[in-house]
Amino acid sequence: MPEGVDTVNVDATRETLIRVGTAMVDADGIAAVGVRSVAAAAGLSHGAPRRYFPTLAALLAAIAREGVDDLDRALAPALARGVGDAAVAYWRFSVERPHMFDLIFRHDLLGGAGGDLREVTRPWIDALAERLDGIDRAIELWSAIHGLCVLARTAAIASAGITVDEGYVRAVAERLAAA
Length: 179
What we know:
single chain; 9 helices; MT1864/Rv1816-like_C; TetR/AcrR family transcriptional regulator; DNA-binding
């Protein structure tokens, strides 16, 4: 940081942009977020975000990191309690914050844009692998629960007459963990 630059204000402005962008994602989805729209909602000039985020992808990655950290705060203690609790925590996040859930798994948008999302998400897989005695079983379980979240959200599973809720998600996770 150059001498004389107020790092507190730089950090505060950066955090404001992330906070505003996060609120926009949660309210209206990824498409609502643009560099100019976030700046306007934050009460900043349209060029201000470029000082902190050189691209829209970098801004989205910072927003996604907030979402991943929020999911981690729910998921990490749930993983410590058991696979069923972890599946329910994951499900709840997908239901309560569906647009953020979408963003954090948009690797096509976020790849190489920063945010170091893998440093947070890798321990989830490692914890599942340890509980399930292998990475393959961990990936199978995560895929199943993630798939249920997506299928329920898009109503694709409703035609089968299945109601996906916390109990259903827990039962699937526990059944797969016991197999």
